[in-house]
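Model it.
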Amino acid sequence: MAVKVPKARNVPQRLARGRPDCGFTGLDWVEETQADELEALLELGYDPVRIVAAMPEGHELPRGQESPPPVVATEYVGLARRWLTQERVPRHLIQTFGATEVFPRRMRTCLSTTRLPGRRFEANGLRLVAELLRSSTSFVASQLALQDPAKRKRMEEMAMLMESVLPPTERCSSR
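Modeled.
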């Protein structure tokens, strides 16, 4: 058995290809990458995040055809695009790699999807517009690997062992 430690955002795409068989990532990254070929075996409850949309105080969510369309800064381009399409919000997407909450303050017409509601929101003059997703670290497996009875048994045993050592308040089995 080999162990590798990639970034959580890269795990869903690697697992979806069937190599490796299982791993740890947030369900936010599973949703972002639309890795439907994965199954969450156990939600561990660690590193909980809320993926939210936020805007500068005093600004409204634009609807219809605005010219130019508002800038949306986000680490979650896929989640943001799907949510904005559903809400019928025109947009120009900019992918960020951290510190997304500073973009609206500098642009004033910007909507931001980020993982960090709280004091950093207030410090940057943001208000919550919508919650897109809640997530935490999960043990996930490739559906391809789960088709192999021996691999399935081993991964389910791993999930059971992990669940048995979690504090009672963090047990969130998705089985």
